[in-house]
Amino acid sequence: MSHPISLQNLSWSYGSQQVLRHITQEIRGGCFTSILGPNGSGKTTMLKLLMRILIPDHHTVTLDGQDILQYPRRDIAKRIGSVPQSSRAEYPYRVYDMVLMGRYPHKGRFEGIAKIDHDIVRRALKTTEVYHLRKHSIHEISGGELQRVMISRALAQEPDILALDEPTSHLDPRHQLSILRLLRTLVLERDITVMCVLHDLNSAMHFSDRVILLDQGNIAAYGHPEEVLTPASIKRVYGVDTQVRRFDGERPHILYVDS
User: Fold this and answer.
1) Using CA atoms, how far apart are residues 79 and 84, in angstroms rounded to an integer?
2) Which residue from 15, 26, 37, 113 has the least number of CB within 10 angstroms?
3) Phi-psi region at 121: left, alpha or beta (left = phi > 0; alpha = psi -120 to 50)
4) Phi and psi for 99 in degrees, rounded to 5?
């Protein structure tokens, strides 16, 4: 079942600086949606508003037709699993224990961990292919493995929506592709809605169903990546010249032109 998200005249300011400006947009559920834009365009702010980490200045975000401000925080944590930009934890938790934390929104104040919780944690670890690391400290694993662990923790929440802030930053190309393929699989096989802040336009082109292109706090375009990521829109928003080429029947590839 898809879970549509609606942004209704959404604004947010940091002091006197307006970061997002009266955004109205319906976002399809059950899709991989990438949030793109130059530095400072409001990408992370939009994601934090979707997760209710920030409270909008004006109007709101709705999930399944209900204002997310009306959801109790515990219910938001059940509906939306988040993977932050920086995931390095201060304490050397075991991988298994880190993922088990994703079950806390489903537990009462004095309720213990049950068999079903362990079953869900094991499934999440196997889905992200880090089950073999379950006894390791998170300080003993690589950056790519840690990203998979954090996605496992979010999956343990059994969310309808997975919100990720630059999940491929600081990773080598192999791990970048691994993470993006995993997210694509979750959309296709589990009908999870993925909302993902990305910088790489070609990653968005190849893995996304829909793209939100932000420019100075406004939505410059929303739609299928091939419709949004055109040389004209990239020039207008990023100020760089590009060509869009298709190779071997695959999705188009964006080539940067040295002008």
Assistant:
1) 16
2) 15
3) alpha
4) -70, -35
Q: Which domain holds residue 231?
A: 5-256
Can you tell me the distance from the alpha carbon of 30 to that of 236, in angstroms, rounded to the nearest whole number?
A: 29
Span 76-131, pLDDT tens digits: 989 999 998 766 667 899 999 999 999 999 988 888 899 999 999 999 999 999 99
pLDDT digits (tens, 9 = 90+) for 58-70: 767 888 888 888 8
Beta pairing class for 5-14 and 17-27: antiparallel
132-158 residue pLDDT tens: 999 999 999 998 899 999 999 999 999
Whether the CB-CB separation of 180 and 198 falls below 8 Å is answered with no
Residue with tokens 């401000």: 69
The sign of the torsion formed by the CA atoms of 170, 175, 178, 182 equals: negative
Phi, psi angles (nearest 5°) of residue 40: 85, 10
Structure tokens at 26: 């319906």
Spell out the long-range contacts of 243-251 with Cβ–Cβ below 8 A and sequence spacing 24 or more. Answer: 250/206, 251/205, 251/206, 251/225, 251/226
Q: Which amino acid is at 259?
A: S
Give CA 20 to chain center in angstroms. Answer: 18
- CATH code assigned at 35: 3.40.50.300
Q: For residues 80 and 192, what is the distance between their CA atoms, to the nearest angstrom?
A: 10
- Name the residue among 5, 28, 22 with its Cα closest to residue 56: 22
Q: How many domains, the chain?
A: 1
Beta-carbon-side half-sphere exposure of residue 139 (alpha carbons within 13 Å):
5
Residue 194 CA to residue 216 CA, distance in Å, equals 23
